[in-house]
Amino acid sequence: MADLRGGFTSTRFVLVEPSHPGNVGAAARALKTMGFSRLVLVSPRVPHVQSDPEAIAMASGADDVLASAHVVPTLADALTGVHWSIALTARLREYGPPQWTPRAAAAVAHERAVHGEIALVFGNERTGLSNEDVERCSALAHIPANPAYSSLNLAQAVQVLAYELRTEYLSADDVATRALVAIQANQEQGEPAGARAASDEIESMFTHLESALVAIEFLDPANPKKLMSRLRRLFARSGLEREEVNIVRGIARHILLKTNRKDGDAS
Questions:
Q1: d(CA 30, CA 62)
Q2: Same domain for 46 and 122?
Q3: Is residue 51 part of a domain?
Q4: What is the full DSSP assignment across 19-36?
Q5: How much is the pLDDT for 249?
Q6: CB 112 within 8 A of CB 196
Q7: DSSP conformation letters of 83-141
C-alpha cells in the first residue's frame, strides 16, 4: 500500500490555460473519482475559477479538489519539483519527447512516481499544448481515439489518463513495493544514488547547453533549425539523473570558459 499511496500523492494533474470553468470543475470530479486530488491550473482564462458557479456545479461533489487547485502563471511554475512529466496531445508530432498510449505512459508513470513528483499536462481546449510546452515535458501521450471523430472534452481526457494511472497503481506488485522500501532506506541515509533531476534543473541545463553550443558556433541563433528540439528528445529518452545534469552543465561551463563567453546560467 505504500507504493499506492505514494503514487496518488506524488502525481499532479496540470491544466494549461483552461478556457471553460465547467471543464475545470469536471476535471476535478474526474480526479476525485480515481482517487487523485492534486490539480494545478496554469493561467486559467477565468481568474478565480475555483469559485465560479459553473465549475462548482460540474465538480459535483469534488469541491474540495477544485477549491485546493493551485494556480500558477506558467508551466515552468507548475512543474517545479517535478522530475518526470507527460504531455497529452491530440495530434502526433514530428519533434518532441517519446510518444506513448495512455496505458504505456501509465506504466512508466508508475515507476517514476516511486522516485518522486510526476505530472500529467493537458492543453487548452481549443489549441492544445504549444510545441514549447510539449518539449518541456519528459514524454508524450496520445489517446488513440476514432480517427473519424477524435474530439475529446478536456475533462474526458483527464478521466482517461487518471483511470489508466489508477489501474496501474492498484496493480502494484511485491517487486515494486520492495523497490520503494529500498529507495526509502537510501533516502534515510542521504540523497539516493541515481536521484532523478527535477524539471527546473533540466531546463537550466538546456539553457546552459544552448549557450555553450552558440559559443562554439555549433548552433546558429539566427538559424537554429531543430537542434535543441532534437537534443531535448534525445535527453528525454534517457530519463536524466541529477548527476548527469551536472555533468552536462560542467561540460557547458568549461566550453564557455574556454571561449571566454559569459556563463549565462550557472545557477
A1: 9
A2: yes
A3: yes
A4: --HHHHHHHHHHHHHTT-
A5: 86
A6: yes
A7: SEEEEE-SS--SSSS-EE-HHHHHHHHHHHHHHS-EEEEE-BTTTB--HHHHHHSSEEE
> What is the predicted pLDDT for the residue at 164?
95
CATH number of 250's domain:
1.10.8.590
- Tell me, yes or no, whether 31 and 141 share the same domain: yes
| Number of domain units in the chain | 2
Mean pLDDT, consecutive 10-residue stretches, the chain (267 aa), reads: 62 97 97 97 96 96 96 96 91 68 91 89 92 90 88 93 94 52 46 70 84 86 82 77 84 84 52
CA-CA distance, 154 to 61, in Å (whole number)? 19
Contact 32, 65 (CB under 8 A): yes
Shared domain for 137 and 245, answered yes or no, is no
Answer whether 0.85 is exceeded by the pTM.
Answer: no
Q: Which of 177, 210, 234 is the last residue of a domain?
A: 177
Q: What is the pLDDT of residue 2?
A: 37
Is 4 part of a structural domain of the chain? Answer: no
